[in-house]
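pls design
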């Protein structure tokens, strides 16, 4: 792992794969870190320059007091890539990372080769719900959120068959900085790109999990209707489809990037 200073703030990242390969940038979901992309990093670093990082408020990255905004999270990506001399990149984000990807498609299309937005929506949830969750973790810490996350992130069959994977991710969620998590909740509370995503012209793949209770297939369909020429893939998974259906996810992403 490496760190980079952007405006006196630290961001934790991993860069692997051939230096002359096309850049593939991964952005994590709320309550996880760059490590959620381990399967993708292993698979794609043979042919791509793979970049994964801890979103602001998570892991080893900046945890300044919130609220954060989606503009702030999107500009973090632009400032990090510019500081590393990365002019053009493919971007793949899941859930919160997918919202960051949509923001980039709207505001920084000149930097994007291709865009992959997974298990996300142009507006995720409701403002009051996110603000309530932010207040909860500030008051009680991460345990109340972590206790119910396995059932939101994965299907019951995956939880039963892969307890080590699930427990590792839930343990990571418990260790997430409560203020950083809450500040990202506040960014999600205000984030609403439904009226803007029609501006996205970058070739886009939209990935949904057929069992996802958080960002549904209907959410993916709504984005696909507005983003001209977008491709759609449904995977047999819940919210963290890149982990639950990693092989199918990797193959769909590879086919799209090569297409």
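designed seq:
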């Amino acid at each position: 792992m490496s760190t980079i200073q952007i405006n006196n703030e630290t961001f934790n990242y991993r860069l692997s794969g051939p230096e002359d390969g096309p850049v593939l940038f991964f952005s994590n979901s709320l309550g996880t870190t760059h490590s959620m992309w381990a399967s993708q990093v292993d698979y794609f670093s043979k042919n791509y320059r793979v970049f994964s990082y801890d979103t602001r408020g998570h892991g080893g990255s900046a945890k300044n007091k919130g609220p954060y905004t989606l503009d702030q999270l999107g500009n973090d990506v632009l400032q990090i890539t510019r500081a590393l001399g990365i002019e053009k990149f493919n971007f793949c984000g899941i859930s919160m990372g997918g919202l960051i990807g949509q923001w980039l498609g709207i505001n920084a299309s000149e930097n994007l080769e291709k865009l992959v937005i997974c298990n996300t929506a142009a507006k995720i949830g409701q403002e009051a719900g996110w603000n309530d969750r932010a207040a909860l973790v500030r008051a009680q810490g991460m345990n109340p959120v972590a206790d119910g996350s396995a059932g939101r992130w994965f299907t019951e069959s995956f939880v039963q068959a892969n307890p080590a994977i699930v427990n590792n991710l839930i343990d990571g969620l418990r260790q997430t900085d409560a203020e950083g998590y809450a500040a990202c909740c506040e960014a999600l509370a205000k984030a609403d790109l439904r009226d803007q995503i029609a501006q996205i012209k970058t070739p886009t793949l939209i990935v949904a999990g057929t069992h996802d209770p958080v960002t549904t297939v209907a959410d993916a369909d709504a984005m696909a209707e507005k983003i001209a020429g977008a491709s759609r893939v449904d995977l047999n998974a819940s919210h963290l489809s890149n982990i639950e259906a990693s092989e199918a996810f990797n193959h769909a992403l590879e086919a799209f990037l090569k297409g």
